[in-house]
Specification:
The protein is of the alpha/beta class and 509 residues long. The protein folds into three domains: 24-271, Dihydropteroate synthase-like (TIM Barrel), CATH 3.20.20.20; 308-406, no CATH class; 415-504, Sulfite Reductase Hemoprotein, domain 1 (2-Layer Sandwich). It is built from 16 helices and 19 strands. It has helices at 38-51, 63-78, 93-99, 110-113, 117-134, 149-155, 159-175, 190-206, 223-239, 254-271, 330-343, 361-377, 393-406, 429-440, 457-460, 491-504, and strands at 12-14, 17-19, 26-30, 55-59, 85-89, 105-108, 137-143, 181-186, 214-215, 245-246, 308-309, 321-325, 350-355, 383-387, 415-418, 447-451, 466-472, 475-480, 483-490. An eight-stranded parallel beta sheet has the order 8-7-6-5-4-3-10-9. A hairpin with a 2-residue loop joins strand 18 (475-480) and strand 19. Helix 6 (149-155) packs across helix 7 and helix 9 (223-239) packs across helix 12. It is globular, with a radius of gyration of 23 Å. It starts with 11 loop residues before the first strand and ends in a 5-residue tail after the last helix. The structure holds iron/sulfur cluster (SF4). Residues 419-422, 424-425, 451-453, 455-457, 460 line the site of iron/sulfur cluster.
């Protein structure tokens, strides 16, 4: 992929909004209010819509929440907002049936909708018929952390397991001639998320389907880390021409997600107009499997050594190549550089250098993550040098290490896998993250999950070393990996217990 070219997807109508085809990449978010709180949900929905959200999703735990969506829809209409609403349904097919009567789109999770193929047929076909009757669109939303038992036993939690989980449902949609469908396959690990969506696009093309794609990195966290991780994952795929609607999941107020999503979309739309570059990167890397480009080591660069962060002033050792990205199509330019090295069998390590003249930190975070992240997602580069004279050096340094961490290329700090919060959340997500970060941010090699509820939390923090999960109001359960080790601790003692747990494993420094 040297030049930008958007995948040719079908158009799905969600209420009055068209998604896919040549329509703009749509931006969406999710409320974190209780869906039973009509007034609170309507107010937050209006805030989101005013900020630029083109769809608004609500958690829909049960039939009473699904029914209350009708009141929320009605009240929004009364106040002049007809932005489509999306019901987010897990575990209960009946809830999806109810929600289909009241809102423009229903998300179901193939991982917990039904387990056996027979059960899927029995529940899903009537649901599709209801959606046809009421003109309701659906999203098949697969998550890395919530694949069903049958899929896990056969494929493990692999990209193949995620695509197969989605395709089982999609093939039924095709057979039933149901076209009002969008799909997503999300993970908090950007590499897995990127590889899976690429695989999904390939398989759909092979089976003659061009269903629109919803993109997102789950549990991306907050602040700088959340922005970098989201921009790396979503931006890599959008740069590949994949994706028709996006949700940036930050553990912050939902409204804070919208400008980040907007910047990502704006940047991609600017890049799509970049002058074409001649050349091909065929066979440069396998888009669905990670492997690091084979290089010789030169000093601390290349070979099996971790990618390095360089400052503008540092000179390179002889034998280390500097790939200075200068055009508007930095990704294509860089891929062509690596393709030429490959065709000449050149194995010297490569540093990417890119100049940015912005003085806005968030712009730099997003643009550098989108442009430089893919090279580390695909294992091509051995170092990163961001030259941004109008931004403080410590911010540029932190961003550079952040890109390496977000792409899985090099871990230099504690990784927090935290949910964006929703109507199920059992504690204040922002202050809790701040408290846990203050206590643990020096534990450089750990991944800590901070999840608002026990229903989806433990599964969704798939590869965390430890988990802090809302178990009830004012109650927290702690996890070591996927195993619950302490249940229902009072919230005011939970961080202390987490520290004690890490200590008892000899991982406290
Ligand atoms: S983990 Fe639970 S609380 Fe957090 S976003 Fe997911 S469903 Fe909502």
């Amino acid at each position: 992929m040297i030049n930008y070219s958007r995948r040719n997807s079908s158009v799905v109508k969600v209420g009055n909004l068209c998604i896919g085809g040549n329509n703009p990449i749509r931006i969406q978010s999710m409320l974190n209010t209780s869906t039973m709180d009509t007034e609170g949900s309507v107010n937050q929905a209006i805030d989101l819509i005013k900020a630029g959200s083109e769809l608004v999703r609500l958690t829909t735990q049960g039939e009473r929440e699904a029914k209350n969506m009708a009141l929320i829809r009605e009240e929004l209409n009364k106040r002049g907002y007809n932005t489509p609403l999306v019901a987010d349904v897990h575990f209960n097919a009946k809830v999806a049936d109810e929600a289909a009567l009241h809102v423009e789109k229903v998300r179901v999770n193939p991982g917990n909708y039904a387990n056996s193929i027979d059960e899927i047929e029995q529940k899903f076909v009537p649901f599709l018929n209801l959606c046809k009757k009421h003109n309701t669109a659906i999203r098949l939303g697969v998550n890395h952390g919530s694949l069903n038992k049958r899929i896990l036993e056969k494929y493990g939690d692999t990209p193949q397991g995620m695509t197969e989980s989605c395709m089982e449902f999609l093939r039924i949609c095709k057979r039933e001639n149901f076209n009002n469908v969008i799909i997503s396959v999300k993970a908090s690990n950007t590499r897995i998320m990127v590889q899976t969506v690429r695989q999904m696009a390939r398989i759909m093309q092979k089976e003659d389907m061009n269903i629109p794609l919803h993109l997102g990195v789950t549990e991306a966290g907050d602040g700088e880390d959340g922005r970098i991780k989201s921009a790396v994952g979503i931006g890599t795929l959008l740069s590949d021409g994949l994706g028709d609607t996006i949700r940036v999941s930050l553990s912050e107020s939902p409204v804070a997600e919208i400008p980040v999503a907007q910047r990502i979309v704006d940047f991609i739309s600017k890049k799509s107009k970049a002058p074409k570059i001649e050349g091909s990167d065929e066979n440069l890397y396998d888009p669905e499997h990670y492997s690091r480009r084979e290089t010789v080591s030169v000093g601390e660069f290349g070979g099996n050594q971790v990618p390095l962060v360089l400052t503008a002033e540092e000179t390179l050792l002889n034998g280390v190549l500097d790939c200075v990205l200068s055009s508007d199509n930095a990704l294509g330019e860089g891929r062509l550089f690596f393709a030429n090295l490959k065709s000449n069998n050149n194995k010297q390590p490569v540093i990417l250098t890119r100049f940015y003249d912005t003085s806005d930190v968030e712009t730099l975070q997003i643009e550098a993550s989108i442009e430089l992240g893919p090279f580390f997602i695909d294992g091509l580069a051995d170092g990163i040098r961001i030259v941004a004279p109008n931004i403080a050096p410590d911010i540029v340094n932190s961003l550079s290490y952040g890109i390496l961490q977000a792409t899985g290329a090099r871990m230099t700090k504690t990784e927090y896998i935290s949910c964006p919060s929703c109507g199920r959340t059992l504690f204040d997500i922002e202050s809790t993250i701040a408290k846990i970060k203050a206590a643990t941010s020096h534990l450089k090699s750990l991944k800590i999950g901070i999840m608002g509820c026990i229903v989806n939390g433990p599964g969704e923090m798939a590869d965390a070393d430890y988990g802090y999960v809302g178990a009830g109001v004012g109650r927290i359960s702690l996890y070591r990996g996927q195993q619950c080790v302490e249940k229902n601790i009072p919230e005011d003692q939970a961080v202390e217990h987490l520290i004690a747990l890490i200590r008892s494993d000899g991982k406290w420094v």
